[in-house]
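Worked example 4.2. Below are the chains of a multi-component assembly; read each line carefully before continuing.
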Amino acid sequence: MINFSYTIWILLLPFLMFLLLGLAGHKYFPKLSGLIGTGGLAVITVLSYITAFKYFFTSEKVEGAYQKITAFNITWLQLTDKLHIDLGVLLDPISVMMLVMITTVSLMVHIYSLGYMKGEKGFERFFAFLSLFSFSMLGLVLATNIFQMYIFWELVGVSSFLLIGFYYQKPSAVRASKKAFIVTRFADLGFLIGILILSFNTRTFDFITLTDPAGAAIAQGGGIAFMGLSVMTWSMIFVFMGGVGKSAMFPFHIWLPDAMEGPTPVSALIHAATMVVAGVYLVARMFPIYAFSAPAALDVVAYVGAFSSLFAAVIACTQTDIKRVLAYSTMSQIGYMMLALGVSGYGGHAGLGYMASMFHLFTHAMFKALLFLGAGAIIHAVHTNYMTEMGGLRKYLPITHMTFLIACLTIAGIPPLSGFFSKDEILAAAFHNNKLLFAVEYAVAGLTAFYMFRLYFSIFWGKDTHYHHTPHEAPATMTIPLIVLAIGSVFTGLIPFNELVTSDGKVFETELELIVAIPSVLIGLLGIGIAIVMYRKESEIPDKLAATFKYGYKWAYNKFYMDELYFFVTNKIIFRYISEPVAWFDRHIVDGTMNAIASVTQSVSFRIRGFQSGQLQKYAFVFVTGAIMLAILFIYLWK
Amino acid sequence: MNTGIPIQYFLILATIMFFTGVYGFLTRRNLITILMSVELILNSVNINFLAFNRYLYPNKLEGMFFSLFVIAVAAAEAAVAIAIIINIYRRFTTINVEDVNEMKF
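Applying the procedure described above to all two chains together yields the following structure tokens:
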């Protein structure tokens, strides 16, 4: 039995970095804090690689399946004799994979931020928050029980809030961070309700007990029914609601585009590679329960994922802010991952969707982080976010150009890059299970290729814009992560996920299905081709198309008016008819009662104090009257 | 001595004097007049005691002794009261009882 208890340091080290940089960074080492944070993260990256190597290649397999290993577990809160909240580290294929991915991307973002955030006012604060985020995300991924996951889930939300609102003096950034936190917090309410229903019925929080396919938790699943669905289905749907918020699926996606107000490394780390996949990870973690006890909830997952990816892809075709295009692209790709989980079964070849989802999660992290960091390099060079003000940058930013091109080809699904393999597996899983969703995702693949290459050509080709000062290539600290991530994007497609990360831990055979692969490559090439025609050189086709489909364009450009809808519902309906009456009640009736009690007391006391008038004869009068009454009482009425 | 004065006459007299004294105490404004009312009350009580002594316990003298005490105490109390009134005059320059009302809320 290998000793994995050192893995607790993977969690604790970023937390200590956060405390150190947060408390002492500003005063004692403002310039050095970047290196300290990066150093800590490099250590845990090495530790995670060692853990991954040991786990995947040397740990014992039972019946050919990877085992879930609890590396460390302490009981934090004992609620009843069987129910307790622990804090610990759980190692299983998906958590080790996530460990590798999170630490790698986080390390790249740390190195990049050394260059990008150099000279900024809150430099040490930034690295402290990045360490806090790494700690929270790792805690979420390595959680041994669902309540620990919830605690770290909320912590990730807090880190995201702090990082989006990093430029806290900018009102739009503050608004965006509030929006992100409130929307995800509202979704987390659903998550909590789901946890409570689940643990009430299964009497445990622990993942290993809950997700054991032969165990009692899943067996008693379909028991009680409420409004047509079993209790487990309801709890899984509520749990998924938390995932919808955190992963920016429709309808809780509104915070993700606004979250681009944060610095670009934040967007790369949190809103592309790690935090937004927390919802996917949650569904994957609870997958045995979904597959066996709550298949209706899996349908919800699949349809929400597919709809979100189509919705986001359409909007991304019209956006002009490069970071927002990438944000909607993230939403779309996460929709792919949710879809893949939704159409998946459990065990062997039926678990193709599960494996494909995790595979796509891994490759997506690489190329999306690369895209965002590249966008950061571009913004750093030309000081604008809008692609309408860019063009012809391939001459000035060679390394950024090459890596960005590799990432765009990857996301479009061109072989032999990694995106082709992972997207192809998802399309194959959808093709075998639900033809409608396959058709939707196929269309989205074409749209993805189109809008990514629209982005690429508008920035690097298109019109030859004259810049105020010549854009210069980013410094080495920024280009080295780009190169590393580009290498990752190219080669991670060769990792045999079907042997490492599957729904039941066992190996299953997959082969390249040409019936799915060839059409997906073709539609990707079609999308690229259309983008070449429209955007490679300056042309009038985009404007003419926008004018032809005036309403479609307007609706897509305005994000289908979702923000306006939310504002309408909250301001005009909820605030006016619910909040304001409640506030009125609180101010007038509750406070009014208190004030009335006080003022009645005051007026009564004012009357009573008239008895102490200081006038002797009044006192004597009262005395005499009292004496006479007592005399009457004793003489005549005493029995 | 076949017919003495019935006791009721003494008691009614004492009662009228008592309530006259009480009325005077409660109504008069001058402090010295209030003192005079108090003396009236004390005297009425004395008459009461003597009447009961004579009619109920003719051989005994406790009622008369008590009346002597009351007279003595009344004299002492009048002395103290005059001292207080002099002090009040020094403080307030008036002996109108309605003006002596500082010990109030």
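Take a moment to check your reading of the output against the notes. The first strand of chain A starts at residue 61 and ends at 62. The first helix of chain A runs from residue 8 to 28.
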